[in-house]
């Protein structure tokens, strides 16, 4: 990470001093950066002149005292509070009064690191994402004592380095690692409740929810030990709030040494005989072909249901509309009721009730999860499967569970985003930018909540809270304010 940040600064035309406590490491790092710049020239992404200028601007140094001329110092040392505090206390004795000190921490409190300084007002967080030369996002974190002018300097510096900075206050996980927790947590909870297997959950979130990767394959890539440590750190920082409760299933995975791709096995296996969720690895459950209905009935309901009905009509299936306000029930010729996942069980609807999951875009989605009430007739379930197959979707039949997979995940992401905005962590725009660029979400959670409506999100969470009354799903103050806002706009 340190090498990556140095490369970004060099590419922007800044002279860079490299320091590391390990003897000779700074010299080797300079050589590694130079080799990376050579490859950029070979690929036509950098001119030879710029490469040569950047190479000439790298200076490895052996002692902190050689950083005395620096105007900005960014650390990327071990994620231990005492190590960072000691480093910055030593730096304060070396650099000038106008030097800005910055930490690249992803999990520690910026305020706590600055607590050991004589002048904490010149300290801030500049959290780059790995690999720093490629990923555009930088979280510019203001600690409790950070001078606004210093935060502005950090923001403008990141912008000048070709990055997309977002401002946030010092809160556990900042924006991305705070708001992203439900993406992993809801999938792991669904697994623990035996709603579906990891390959199926991943496929539903990718192919229906529009996420770039599923949470199981993503945490295998990140490293289960790393992801679980971040989750546990955020949970402990929030005084063990049920909103951030870690997964026991993931803890057991870490304890077993199955850390993901780097160890050869995580949720999936990565040896020569397994594809880890790829062509030769675990495959999602997919229902066999069924006959679709010729017509369906429909009572008006929330936006996602209206969107789905539009897709049904375009597929040439007749729709008998009842324009009276309702819950968006789609009725099948055999009498089955098809309802959008809303935080209740399909069993709560009784009889031939079949629930289908939320999708980012029902026209573009290629997979949908459905669940049915225990007493539903096989013919009714087959008719529902056939309907979605006629729309070009793969269908995964999962165990009846409140919120299914995508709906519960998205509702929680929206709630976490609304909570962060309400607490002044970041603006709605910065939250959405951070989540799109930091973790490649198809939509920012605020934009997603606007599309779904905060009322729909709140109702899903309220229903989930009834079935899981731990506080985990209780709608946040931010979401409730958003719902009550006369303009329907989320604001801090």
Tell me what you see in this structure.
The chain is of the alpha/beta class. Helices cover 42% and strands 14% of the residues. It has 19 helices and 14 strands. The protein has helices spanning 2-11, 25-42, 48-56, 81-92, 110-114, 148-160, 176-179, 181-192, 198-207, 215-222, 224-237, 248-255, 303-314, 378-390, 406-422, 428-439, 445-452, 454-467, 477-484, and strands spanning 16-19, 58-61, 72-75, 100-103, 123-128, 137-142, 164-169, 295-300, 318-325, 330-331, 337-340, 353-356, 367-372, 394-397. The strands form 3 sheets. It has a 7-stranded mixed β-sheet with strand order 9-8-10-11-12-13-14, with helices on both faces. The protein has a 5-stranded mixed β-sheet with strand order 3-4-5-6-7, sandwiched between helices. α5 (110-114) links the parallel β4 (100-103) and β5 (123-128). α15 (406-422) packs across α17. The model has no long low-confidence stretch (mean pLDDT 95).
